[in-house]
């Protein structure tokens, strides 16, 4: 089964355009914003250290690609939950993962920018 087939929402009451929009926002904030600002802080700021123990461990062991891999794994889990929610007609499971990632990503991005600017 191809990835595109696994993400199809044809047999559900949910709109595929809405799905794409939700995940685009989550990708922009959590995927891009948080990763870029975290890498900027970790590698270009001497004043700030990472506080998240999991991120410290992963970045310490695998560098910035470890951070990207961790974010990617989080995305995969959340998309899986979202698609499962769509197939079981569970609105909470459909909307919560991308919304939570978008909120966490927006907060983390804003917080990281604030830390970087001093």
What does this structure look like?
This protein is an all-alpha fold and 118 residues long. Helices cover 80% and strands 0% of the residues. It has helices at 3-6, 16-44, 53-62, 64-87, 91-117. Helix 3 (53-62) crosses helix 4 (64-87) and helix 4 packs antiparallel against helix 5. It is elongated.
Fraction in beta strands: under 5%
* C-alpha termini separation: 48 Å
How do the SSEs run, as a string of H and E? HHHHH
Question: What's the gyration radius in Å?
Answer: 16 Å
Shape: elongated
Overall mean pLDDT stands at 89
Low-confidence stretches: none
At a glance:
This protein has helices at 3-6, 16-44, 53-62, 64-87, 91-117. It has 118 residues and is mainly α. It is elongated and about 50 Å long.
Provide keyphrases for this structure.
mainly alpha, elongated, 118 residues
Which helices and strands occur, and which strands form pairs?
Elements: H1 3-6, H2 16-44, H3 53-62, H4 64-87, H5 91-117
Helix pairs in contact: 2-4, 2-5, 3-4, 4-5
